[in-house]
Amino acid sequence: MAGSSGASPGIGPRAGRGVAAGRDFLRRRADGTVHQIGVLFVTTIEGFRKTWNVRQWWGEYIEQCYFIARVTALPVMLIALPLGGTISLQVGQIVRQIGAQSGTGAAVVQALVTQVAPMAAALLISGAGGSAMTSDMGARRIRDELDAMEVMAINPIHRLVTPRLWAASTVGAMLCSVVILAGVVGGYYFNVVQQGVTPGSYFDGATSLLRLSDLVITLFKAWVFGFIAASVACWKGMNCAYGPNGVGRAVNQAVVIAALLVFAANYVISTLAYVLFPPRT
């Protein structure tokens, strides 16, 4: 039969060509994804490799720390205040039914310290500081500044990426205290002022479930999340397409990818933390 030669039974020649084209497209996308993941890991490891040469990147590190802190400190406070208030309001309504209003402070502070603080800091760093990093690195790429640095025997990853990695991780750990403080203030207002719980009960419950390991894990999370946000931002900026549209797409992709990786890392670290340090009851 002329229509059935060279094609699978039940599939015409045109459908067979469509299936083959689909397979080729999926194979190319898979190869491109694996290649991009490899480039991300190479950029991160190479940026971390020259950490010991502090004198080379110290000035850029201070500048980036100041910039990231300036663009994230106020927004993270404005986010933490309603977050703490929302947690306090919702938990307070539940525990009031069982007569345990004093436990609201413990729930608010435990949630802020273990989950909300590092996540809020990471998302603000990736959204505000990370987008600026991506656009800066993308602008350097389309102006051929990165290639010019390589011509002058200057590794652009060591000179530009390394200080940004450490600046984002440092500011991320420092922002945790701001998030916790603002969240506790928001929870205090809703729990004490609005719901009538005594201040002593609120703060006594706030410290009943916390341990030193919780704070250490939180700071470690914030450090890792900041490192991830800066790595993704620098990677997308240094490998963006030429032109303003390429830089804009790189900024958008960097924020989305950083958020996804931060949530995945948070799940892994939280699971390991609960196994190694079971929560106090």
UniProtKB/TrEMBL annotation:
Keywords: Membrane, Transmembrane, Transmembrane helix
Membrane keyword on record: yes
Pfam families assigned to the protein according to its UniProt record, in alphabetical order: MlaE
Residue stretches spanning the membrane: 165-190, 210-235, 255-277
Organism: Actinomadura chokoriensis
Stored PANTHER family: ABC TRANSPORTER PERMEASE PROTEIN-RELATED, PROTEIN TRIGALACTOSYLDIACYLGLYCEROL 1, CHLOROPLASTIC
Name of the featured protein: ABC transporter permease
